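Narrative summary of target 7.
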Amino acid sequence: MKKVRLGIIGIGAQGGTYAGFISEGKVKNMEIGAICDIDPEKKALCAEKYPNVPFYENYIDMLESGNVDAVVTTVPHYLHAEMGIEALKRDIHALLEKPAGVYTKQVKEINEFAASKPNLTFAIFFNQRTNKLYQKVKEIVDNGEIGNIRRTNWMITNWWRPQAYYNQSAWRATWGGEGGGVLVNQAPHQIDLLQWICGMPKKVSSNVKYGYQRDIAVEDDVTAVLDYGNGATGVFITCTHDIIGTDRFEITGDKGKIVVDDSKKVTIKRLKQSENEMNANMDWADAMKLFMGGGLGDIYDEEVLEFESVWGEQHCGVLENFAANILDGTPLIAPGSDGINGVALANAIHLSSWLGKEVELPVDEEVYLAELNKKVEAEKSGK
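Modeled conformation, tokenized:
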């Protein structure tokens, strides 16, 4: 195999974007093998745009056609795991769009099935893991350059979406169609990066507002407090109603601090002595000099890094990495099995809000599913 023939399931906004990248030659070692969509209008569109690419209205037919080596699932969230399993059953490699699923029980099913097929590539579309900025932040944390993490804070409120966005389709921002709001649609990349870089919390307490500033059933405003179980804490804030929103990620350790602004600039402050050492050895007079004299710059070295991002580059990076793993075993940047972590954290934030109390991770998946189903049924009945 010289090129991976990718089957695109769902040729909407994301599927169409990936098809464009591949057809334009931006993804080496990959070509479009087939396209599938249930919308008749998409068939006509693809016949014009991709005349030599087979089109299917049923994804099972596509999987059994012999035209594809791998698929990407650009479909509603509830279908990601199900379609991934059907692909793997037929020895076809699977790349799931984020999130891996709506709830951990369904994600566990595909993780366990994929583990029984170790010869196949199973990945998830966490394109921010190919972002050189966040790769650098992870490297700094992993290398121990800021010491043991004491606090994480991520305010990511620049997901502004007007009511017109939600009015585009009946499935948008519904419990039955998407399984949630900002946590499962806009913020999964940040939720993944947070746990990828800093680790999973042990407990979560949240304040979540549903239909707060938009006429929707699901969450559009989230504040979550994270407890990492070792004394470290975190705060994660996101929403879709702040038109001049903020993207600021801070990681504080006992040896320094990282601040990421707008996913473009990273400021690293490395202490010359750890906070523990200064606390143990500095007398009060010297401490007073530090704060009254403004000499804090003497206790750390500062490095500022600026990153430029080309739109689409990170998506192409995931597709290339996926193809490379299939062709020559290049390690995956985002193994499919990692997808459960972000889903688990989003589930915990939801469940804490629904139950009105702090919850432990992993959450009881049966309790979560029962509560989610209540939301879906209430939505159906118009309550």
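The mean pLDDT is 96.
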